[in-house]
Each structure stands twice: as C-alpha cells, then as structure tokens.
Specification:
Length: 231
Amino acid sequence: MGVLMLVRHGQASFGTADYDVLSSRGVRQSRKVAETLAGYGVCPTTLIHGGMRRQLETAEQMLVGAAAWKLEPETDARWRELDHLAVMNAYPTLTDQDRTQLATGGMDLRAFFELYSKATARWASGAYDDDYPESFAAFVGRVRDAIGHAARTAGERRTAVVVTSGGPIAAACAMLTEVGEEPRRLSAAWARFNAVMVNASVTRVVVGSSGARLLTFNEHAALDRELVTYR
C-alpha cells in the first residue's frame, strides 16, 4: 500500500498585486508542516508540486523545514488551482469597478469571498461551461489524471507528497468519497470540502489493490494557533 499526502500551499498574499506569492506566515506554515511530518518519521520518496508560484515556494520551504528530505521536486501542472479570476470575472452581475478591484487585489475580503462563493457555484453547476476557459468537468478530469500519476509514483510502500491548492484537494476528496459522477452531487461535495481547507493542511490518500481511498482530510494540528489560516 502506498500513501499520497496532499498538502495545501501556505498562505498566499491576498490583497496585493501579486497574490501568487507566499506571505511570511505562509513560509512559516510550510516549514512547520514539513518539520512535523519529518518528526513523525514521514520520509517521502517523491515530492510533486503544481506549477503555480505559491505551490513551488511551499515545496521549497518544506524542504527547508525537513532538512532530511533529500528530494528533487517534480512539477505537475495538473495540480494547479482553478483560475478563480476567470471564474469570478465571468459572473454576470460583475461591475467594471468589481473587475478593477479583482485585477488589482483591492476588493474587500468579505466581498471577495461572497463573490467567490457565488461565482464558483455557477461554474461548478456545469450549466454555463461555454463561459469559462476550463469547465468544472475539465478541472475534475485533470485532477483525476494527476491523482493517477501521483498514485503510480507512490507505488507500494512508498509515500508521495503533493503540494497543491484547496480546489484540487477538494476535487480529489469529492471523487474519493464516492458521491458519484452526477454533476450536482460532485460539485456540492467539492464546495463543502473547499470551504474549510486550512493552509498547509495535510490530506492523506491510501493507494492499494482496490484503488485510492481517502484516509484523512485537512489535518492541521501541527500548526500553532496563529498559523491556522484559511485564505
């Protein structure tokens, strides 16, 4: 039996012109989770990260936190996050002011997440696929492919650590809890998992002869209280 450890990236830089960069807290989160895993005796045979900067930086900081992990990280772009700006900009009631605030990182946090919730629900419904560069179904499909690759990498008695984002982890959990392929149920499960994901949390998937199964979700007890963040 092999193990996949899906790690959400550390806190990014919300409210700045370049969101796709770890904050100072995100750096500490990334080091802490790896240090804790190494202390538990986790010694991964593979370290995979998505192609986004915050995912790469998290993987790099994890190697600092777990100095004994002598690994060459592998990039798999299929683990990238959904394009939340494209999804939000496609929301039909958006104003020009909203679009400007989204582009510059100037939108109020509460307003941002209210819009994010509505926009991703519309996207995940599957009813407006032509409005998006990547549909929810295509997003789920690439995550499924990425899980398969990571599972083959892990193999028997091996551990693959995957650094990705909340959206792909939520998609993996929705698929692995066997809610089925019916779009409404899959998207509803995805939204519930995605809403509660902690930065630098760990979700474990075991891979055996019967396929991949979800073992734990959103582990973050290793993080001190001030390091627990959701966005």
